[in-house]
Amino acid sequence: MNLNDEQNYIVNLKLMKITGFYHLISSRAPKYFGFNVYKVTAAIEVMTGIFSIIMLFLSSYYYLDNTNELMSHFMLVVAIFFSTLKIFWVSRNSETIWNNMDMTCINFLSYTGHKKEILKKARAKSISTTILFVILWSSVTVAWSISPFFVKDVYLNIKFKDETRRFRYNSLNYVYPISEEFYNEHFLYFYVVEMLSVVFWGHGTVAYDTFVISICITIAFQLKTIAVSYISLNDKKGDIKNLKDNDLEAMFNLKLLIQDQQNMFKKIKEIYKIFEPVTFVQLAAQSMLIILQAYMIFINHYNGFSLLSVPIIKLIVTVAPNIIHLFITCYLYTNINHQQDSMNFALYSSDWTAMSINYKKMLLFTMRMNDAEKLKLKISLRKIVNLEMFASVMHLTYSIISVLAKSYGNTNTK
């Protein structure tokens, strides 16, 4: 990949460079003393994430009597663990990711009759969607980072054996084995530590998710381009030359299209090997986060917090991107599955009836080969990632909130 040809790639290369993701996976990244600077930075982020998880686990012991903070800590453990896993997994598989980035090039397909306009639309969609998620995840990062300065007079009561210490509200609310006077007097130092943990979470989430979204859009539109070329291969009304009178040329072009399709399938298999473990964790973690955040919004509001209070605003700002991200993820994989399934229909829709028997045999062989390909991303032997999964998560969330609302309503009535 060339640093100066961003316009020829579907993925948002400019954003990948800004976040450092490009140099993290690049074989040409700057090195000092033999070390990739970006991989060293990624390692620091991973260690910071591990430190945050340990601190949150240890702090949870002191919040056993505070359900809201205990739930908040559990939610943060899940979120930070997932973000840390993303950075670690990308760093570990950087070479494989880099070797498959060529499929994001608009000129990756070898057949010259492809409609490049489709891939240019894919680039525009990739850029707009990734920018949307930069805004969404950045808003979450900013909300959690600056929240302590909007609740200056809020203190958390922490029990240490026979005494209770009052610590000022912070971004993540770690509990330190120090006196309340020392903590509150040097609050800014502790704030910086927790704020950096939030920023590292935001960076890891933005860098990985914008990359995955771009790749999914790339795969779907590359497959769509091949399907459109199959349909118009021998069509007089299409943009491609009429090949019915030249069977050899028709066979040659069909072979090129089959080769393009097989190259894409090979790339999809390799990239899915990387995506599958992370996507499985993501769907489990994000589903859990959506349910937890919706639960906490309901409980906090029921306990007297205004919808405009800082704790609820933080949760609303957080749950909205999670819902949108889960929907977009399921939608993109559904679209990829649809494009894969449409290959045989595209082949059948081409004007093949007037072609030679050899051409028809090749067409039939390709259709059988497509039927044999099983490229859908799965989280179990039977469940694939699609919009039905998103619908089931939202239905479960709605059911839990409905049950809570009824139970609290009955309690008030009594």
TrEMBL record:
Keywords: Cell membrane, Membrane, Olfaction, Receptor, Sensory transduction, Transducer, Transmembrane, Transmembrane helix. It is found in: Cell membrane. The keyword Membrane applies. The chain crosses the membrane at residues 37-64, 70-89, 130-151, 274-299, 311-333, 384-405. It is a multi-pass membrane protein. The keyword Nuclease does not apply. It comes from the Eukaryota. GO terms for molecular function: odorant binding; olfactory receptor activity. Its main location: membrane. GO terms for biological process: signal transduction. GO terms for cellular component: plasma membrane. PANTHER family: ODORANT RECEPTOR (PTHR21137), ODORANT RECEPTOR 19A-RELATED (PTHR21137:SF35). Belongs to the insect chemoreceptor superfamily. Heteromeric odorant receptor channel (TC 1.A.69) family. This is Odorant receptor. It comes from Acyrthosiphon pisum (Pea aphid).
